[in-house]
Structures are given as C-alpha cells and as structure tokens.
Amino acid sequence: MGKADKVLRVLLVEDSVEDAEQVISLLRNAGIAVRPNRVEDAEQLKEALESGSTDIVLLSPRARKLNLVDTAGIVQRSGKDMSLIQLVDSVSQDAVLKAMREGARDIALRTTPDHLQTVVLREFENLSTRRALRRMEAAWRESERRAHSLLGSSRDPIAYVHEGMHVYANKAYLEMFGFEDFDEIEGLAILDLITSGDAEKFRNVLRMQSKGEKPPEKLDVHAKRADGSTFEAIMELSEASIEGEPATQIIFRQQTLGTELAEQLDALKRQDLVTGLYNRQYFMGELDKAIASANSGRIDQAVLYIEIDNYRKVLDQVGVGGADLLLGDVAAMLKELIAPPNDLVARFADHTFTAVLSGRPHEACVQMAEQIRKRFEERIFDVGKRSVSLNASVGVCLLTEKVAGSQMVLEKANEACRTAQTEGGNRIATFDPAAQDKADAAKDREWLDTIKNALAKDGFILFYQPIVSLQGHEGEFYEVLLRMQGPKGEIMPGQFLPIAERFGLLPQIDRWVVEHVLKILQERMKQGRLTTFFIKLTPQAIDDGTLLPWLAQQLKNARVPGDRLVFEMPESKVVTHLKQAKFFQKGLEQLKCGFALEQFGSGLNSFQLLKHVGANYVKLDRTFMADLAKSAENQAKIKELCEQSRAFGRMTVAEFVEDAASMSILFSVGVNFVQGNFLQEPEKVMSYDFG
Predict the structure, then answer these.
(1) Class of the CATH-defined domain 7-134
(2) Does residue 11 register a pLDDT over 90?
(3) Of 205, 388, 399, residue with least CA distance to 287
(4) Confidence of residue 668 (pLDDT cuts 50, 70, 90)
C-alpha cells in the first residue's frame, strides 16, 4: 500500500489546536493523505468514535482531561478496530513498557518527524492488513460454504479425510458405498472401505503425509461397500482443508474403463489439442504447487513467459491453416528443451507458452530462457512450401519466498516479456523479487543522472495552465507546471522530484524554473501583455537561505517587477516551518512578489495560519472539489472558506475544476479565481483567451 493510496483518518486527543496541527502537518509532509479530527475529553472522544470512522487515535502527552488508560478503555469499548498510539516527547524502556501495559499499540516521538511518520505508517499498514484479513476470512468462509454446497450436489463421490478418518462425505459418496446418512460414516477409517489386499497402498499414503510429503494424485484400489461387496476404483487424492484443518480430498471413481483407456482420457483433460502441450488449466494448478513450495523456502524454481514476436506478420505468411502446424512445431521444439520430470511447458494462450522450471539455481533458469530464445533464432520452421523464421521474447519470474501468488507471478513474468518486446524483442528480461532493492538503487542512480543532465542541458519543460478570474481581475494569470523531457515523452514531477530531493537537487530545480519564467515574462512585457505567473516552489525553498538574495538579483537583472510572480507552497509545509515561512514570506513581500498557500483548508485551523503568514492567495484543497455538484458538505465548506478569506483580505483560487456545474457553484459562493482542465489542460504555449 502506497502512502497516498488511502486516506488516513486520524483522531487526536490534544488540548492545543496548534500542537495538533503540527502533528497533522508532519504526517502530510511524509505524503500521507490525512483526514484529521481533534477532541479534548472523554465525551468528545466517545462521540467522535460513534459518529465516524477512525483509523488511528493519537494521544498527546499534554492532554489534561484524558490519560492513556481511560483513552484505551473508550477505544476498546467502541468495538471498532483502530490503533491507539501514545505520543511522547522522549522515550525510555520504562515508558514503552508502561504505554503497552496501559493499552497503546506503540509510542511515537512527536519531536522526531521520521519516528512519528514511521510508527503511524506502520500501524496504518498493520490495521489495513487486519481489516483485509477479516475480509479474506469472511470471503473464505463464504467460499467454503459454497464449496460444500457444490460438493453436496456433485455427482462425483467426494470425501474429506483427516488423519485417516472421514470428516466429510457427500451424497454421491454415501450412495456409492451403501450408506444412508453421514452419521454412519463419520469417524470411520478410510481403510475400512478398502480391501485388505490394497490397504497397505493407502497406509503408505498416510506415511507420506505424516512426513510432509504430497500424496500421489491417483491410486488404484479395490473398494469395499457397507454390504461387503467390492469394486475396482481409482482414488484421486489432493491436499485440501476443511474448517481450517488440513485434510485430504478423495474422489472415488468406479473403474468402468480399462486402466490404459482411463489414463488416456485423463491425459486428454490436461492437454492442449493443437500443440500436445499441457493446457492452461493444468499449468495453473502446477504453478500453484510451485508457488506453495517457494513460500516454504524452495528457491530453485522459475516461471517463463514465452511469446512469439510479431506473430500477426507470421500469420500473414503462413495463413490460418498453417498456424496450427507452426505452433505444433514450436511446441515440439520447446519439449526438447523443457522436459520432465522437473520442468513442464504449456500453451498458455494463442501464441504464448509458459513453463515452470524446477530443481535448478536461478542463474541456470535464466540461462535456460536464453537457450530457448536462441533456439528460436536459429531454427527454420517449414510450413507447407514456406520456410519461416521466428523470434521470441521470454519473460522470467524467479520464484522466491517473496512471491505472493500465481496472479502476481504471471503478471511479473508477463511484464518482463513486455519489457523484452519494448526493447526490440528477441531477448529475455528477468524479474527477481530478491534483487528488487538493488534494482531500485540502480534506478535511482539512473534518475539522478537524468536529472543532472536536464539541469545542465535545459532538459526540463514548462507547461502553463490558465487561472481565470470570476470577479473581473485585470490581466492574464497562469500557473507554471514543471515537466522533464524523457526518451518517450514528458515525465511528471512526481516521478523525478522525490529523487531530486534525496540527492539535494531541489534548489537547482527551483532556480531553473525561476530563470526561465523571467525570460518568458520579459517577452510578454515586450508584447504589452500583463501576465502574472504562479510558481510552485519545492518545500525545501524556505530552508534555502540563499534563494531570496538570488531572486532579488535575478529580478534586477531581468528588469521585471516582482509583482508579476506569485510563489506557492503547501499549507502543511508552512505550518511545520512557521518561523522560516514567515521570514521567507516577508522577504518576498519586500521584493513585491506574491505568496500563495496551496492545499488550504485541509488543516484543523487553517485561518489561524493567516494571522502569522501574509499569503495573498489561498488555493483551496482539491478534496473539496470532489463531486462538488452533489456534495452539500463540500459546497458549504468552500462557501465558509471564501467568506473567511474575504474577512482576512485574501483571494481564493479553486483548482481542479472539471465541469460546468462546479463553475456555477464556485461563482455563487464568491471564489475569486478558478483553474482546471474544464477551462484548459496544461499546455506548452499560453493560448487561453482571457477576453
């Protein structure tokens, strides 16, 4: 779960609005989407827990009306699953033990942002896991109920055996052996239904299971009915569970065909008729077994995803009639390379083949994939009077304890195959879960080189989105949006700015943007166009003591008035760095530059901030725009924000406007400016007609 994937609903037990706001801002600075609420006493806490959903309760050490024991009691009596975290100013072993004994799941240092963020995120992930587990358990119980219903109505005689004793049998099974009710067979040993001559066969199966080995899939036996009569049967055995307990599922099939014919029919069920390989259904069953063994620690396996490159062009050459012949020849070639008993290969889709390799190191699995690719490259296939050359791309997913299931494995193998094709085909690509961290580090280094190159060679691009006045303000207003030129198009800032931050490159990016905007402003001024640009500064800008003097010099050199620039910063960043933000805003004021607070209204008391920081504009938090035409709550909130902003002498900007209905509402509640794709999507040129 990514940090921004879900909204974290936080309830703070805190007397001070400012202290609560600081905690919320610290969480938001970590990229956590927070919906906060604050209470001071027991009654407020009970009401908050009853009236809404809460994920995490944070108890301040300065809360005077509630201690940890009482808070934990109220949380527990609510009957809801949530995490209670005790905030502390300092930590000791005794403090940790005391907090745990009194009902906290963990403690977090409110004075150490990294610790606070880590603890809250971990508890949120644990909570999400618990909730997901409950959903899975409910779904599992429902699936088991449906399975029992299907078993009961199945014509196949099916029983479940635990430690050699019957724990379930369906109606067909009871009828086959001459019983009227399950009570007659419950607890009966399965050996009692097998003749003495074949009893030893089944005892061997039980011994295998006691050692943790898998039972054979089939067993030929002579079965014995309740009246003593016997019949030849095939026992089909598979591992299963019933009511959470391990069991063996047994299907008795009466032997009406010869053994050889029965085996042939069984083989046909597993076979793809065109190629003679295993079919998709059988492959999926074997893949599940391979993943189960990988989860148990077996790491000498891999899955291959093999796809013929440019198959449509090949089909044009050989025709539909020759396609089956060609696929049959491909299958025969694959069977030469991927052979039992350790390996199996299947036809997964039209021209896609999959394989499970077992009993060889991962390096050898990758070598096998390369051997397959090379064999395609070397082989000439004869189809009728035509000779056809083929290439194939092979995706490899190495199986480790980290793989989560067959769907994940197939997705990763498929993605690897697509990567190979994107890079030109006729190659292999590998996904190794164990090497993911190393790959991420290498990718970071690659991003770092790309960012440095963009700074050195003007590899960034500026996009512009109009900000339109609803109240008749003079001039043109645009927000400047940064992109980076990549080999396949523009790259969004969310992809490269986090890496730039880790490597300390944000100040250089801020300066690159300002320099280029000033050049654009010079051109607009020559054209007689009164244009104001809103520029997003990276949050680290207020800590950059050299930025204001540098900006003053740039404005002087460009001979551009400072009031043509408005610098934006998120409310959460300003709250947590209030002293630096006040200094920075005052410096901008001296340069006549404007200042805007983004994501405004998302805090516990956003207008308290305006008493300290002289923001000219407040850009309303985007969450208030969600389904605005239908949400009376969001409409009321925006109206309230506009009224209070006017009282403070600030102008409001509503971003992310997506429809005409929202425009009408925003105009009626008094919003000053609107911005969004409904008006115009960001473009490289400033083409909006402001009228």
Answers:
(1) alpha beta
(2) yes
(3) 399
(4) very high
Q: How far is CA 283 from CA 233, 507, 623, in A?
A: 27, 54, 46
Numbered ranges of CATH 3.30.70.270 in the chain: 276-431
Tell me the sheet residues that pair with 250: 159, 237
> Domain 445-674 falls in which CATH fold?
TIM Barrel (3.20.20)
> Kind and range of the H or E element at 327?
helix 311-337
Mean pLDDT of 313-320: 86
Banded pLDDT at 256 (limits 50, 70, 90): low
The tens digit of pLDDT for each residue in 627-667 reads 888 888 889 989 999 999 999 999 999 999 989 999 999 99
pLDDT of residue 376: 94
Q: Give the up-direction half-sphere exposure of residue 443: CA atoms within 13 A in the CB hemisphere.
A: 9
How far apart are the C-alpha atoms of 32 and 36, rounded to whole Å? Answer: 12
Check: CB of residue 497 under 8 Å from CB of residue 489.
no
CA distance 13 to 67: 10
The residues of the chain that CATH labels 3.20.20.450 are 445-674
The half-sphere exposure of 190 on its side-chain side, counting CA atoms within 13 A, is 30
d(CA 239, CA 215): 8
CATH assignment of 154-268, among 3.30.450.20, 3.40.50.300, 3.40.50.720, 3.30.450.40: 3.30.450.20
Residues 160 and 166 sit within 8 Å (Cβ to Cβ): yes
- CATH for the 276-431 domain, from 3.40.190.10, 3.90.190.20, 3.30.70.270, 3.40.50.300: 3.30.70.270
Distance CA 597, CA 567 (A): 9
The one-letter amino acid code at 14 reads E
